[in-house]
Amino acid sequence: MGIDLAKLGVRIWKVSELNEAVKNLLENSIGYIWVTGEISNWKVNTSGHAYFTLKDEDAEVSAVMFSGRLSTLKFRPENGMEVIVYGLITLYNKRGTYQIVAEDIEPRGMGALQIAYEQLKKKLAEEGLFDEAHKKPLPFLPRKIGIVTSPTGAAIRDILKVLSRRFANLHIILYPAKVQGDGAAKEIVAGIKFLDNYGVDVIIVGRGGGSLEDLWAFNEEIVVRAVYEANTPIISAVGHEIDYTLTDFAADVRAPTPSAAAEIVVREQRELLQTIDDLRKRLRQSIELKLTQYQHRLEVLKKHRGFDRLLQFINEKKQLTGELKDDLVRWWERKHDAYSKAINKALYSLHLFAPLNRVGTLKERLVSSQKQLMQSGNAFIKHKKLQFIPLINKLDTLSPLRVLGRGYSLVWLEPAHILVREASQLKLGDSLNIRFFKGEATATVNEVKKPENNQDTGGNEI
User: With respect to CATH, is domain 15-109 assigned 3.40.50.1220?
Assistant: First the structure.
């Protein structure tokens, strides 16, 4: 016979009651703590929650991190990573196992941002976002330069100062954007896409120096991908020379500072002018050297014994050579003047950077040409009309129809259709076709009268 524990005042626990009591004991006695260990069995399910084991050399404990907290981590936890976990010690009632509900995870040694940096760098490199083959060359002399940075920072002041010093009157378009803090990455991406669609020749993306946290917007994946996908060449100018962001690796050119980016994007005007002048001198020296070489060869050939008989011929040609040389020098001088004018005109156009002025001038010339063409056309038509009217009048005077209009008619012998000029062509019974000024008629010859002496044959009767 069994013992009635209830009568003895003994409490009989349900499993759920026991688990709930243990859960409360753990949460109230220990609560939130920091625990260090190695991650193993890391797994993220379809709902976005992460389940893993935290262990050391002698023991292990289960842990869970829900999706809301997991999304706030700067790095991606991996198996074998030494971490410090902050969370609540509790018990999972359904299975009766205790676990840590993690609120935060910090890597031991290397910081979370540095780990996130290295993880994303490896991922994007494997996708080919940093490949040299994808990088685009910078334009030789850009007409429109786009800049994505803070409108109040030191970076924009440095860039504008250098650009103004190296090549004044450039067309610069600034897209103002936050460069650190919440929302900075999205504003930088928006600026890159806007300038890429706007049609600038090159884009500078950057900011001044700062800590890893300050520069983090330029390590965001959306920014790196926007730089990679842009059709316009991009110069990354983030921080100081020792600062490297993921944007630097994806950009077509990396500048150590914003000032250096301005020096890279446009060559100094004085340097361009000096290059043009050097090329001009080299061209002239090359032509003069060739002329000297040819003259020397001619003198050598003239003194050679095998050409004694040609001395007179050479002397004749020598004069021609001198004339050709003078012509060549004059030709070069004309070309030199033309090239100088073209170069000066190009430099003037570079200073102006105002295509609308050119459009206005061409428009005025087009309107003037249209007026001249209309005037010339009208004058030509009027002149031809004056020539054409007398010809029409003369033709009308000579027209047979005009003669018929005065009462005359034309007679044809049918069926041969022979024009009858005198009565002797006819005989009795012939068929005739008579043409009047208006209309025609047919007739038959009943009588032929011969012309009398001294009578004009035009008076014959039918």
Answer: no
Same fold for the pair 15-109 and 116-131+142-266: no
The domain defined by 116-131+142-266 carries CATH number 3.40.50.261: yes
**The pTM is what?**
0.46
Predicted pLDDT at 19: 87
The residue type found at 110 is: M
Question: Is the peptide bond between 415 and the residue preceding it cis, with omega within 30 degrees of 0?
Answer: yes
Q: Secondary structure of the chain in the HEC alphabet?
A: CCCCCCCCCCCCCCHHHHHHHHHHHHHHHCCEEEEEEEEEEEEECCCCCEEEEEECCCCEEEEEECHHHHCCCCCCCCCCCEEEEEEEEEEECCCCEEEEEEEEEEECCCCHHHHHHHHHHHHHHHHCCCCHHHCCCCCCCCCEEEEEECCCCHHHHHHHHHHHHHCCCCEEEEEECCCCCCCHHHHHHHHHHHHHHHCCCEEEEEECCCCCCCCHHHHCHHHHHHHHHCCCCEEEEECCCCCCCHHHHHCCEECCCHHHHHHHHCCCHHHHHHHHHHHHHHHHHHHHHHHHHHHHHHHHHHHCHHHHHHHHHHHHHHHHHHHHHHHHHHHHHHHHHHHHHHHHHHHHHHHHCCHHHHHHHHHHHHHHHHHHHHHHHHHHHHHHHHHHHHHHHHHHHHCHHHHHCCCCCEEEEECCCEECCCHHHCCCCCEEEEECCCCEEEEECCCCCCCCCCCCHHHCCC
Please name the residues in contact with 6: beta carbons below 8 A apart, sequence gap of 6 or more. 12
**pLDDT < 50 positions in the chain:** 457-462
Q: Tell me if 143 sits within 8 A of 353, measured CB to CB.
A: yes
Predicted pLDDT at 406: 73
Q: Could you tell me which of 113, 120, 137 has the C-alpha nearest to residue 251?
A: 137
Give the integer Cα–Cα distance in Å for 99 and 54. 10
pLDDT at 269: 58
Q: Could you tell me the residue ranges of all domains in the chain?
A: 15-109, 116-131+142-266, 270-352, 410-459
Tokens of 235: 């110069």
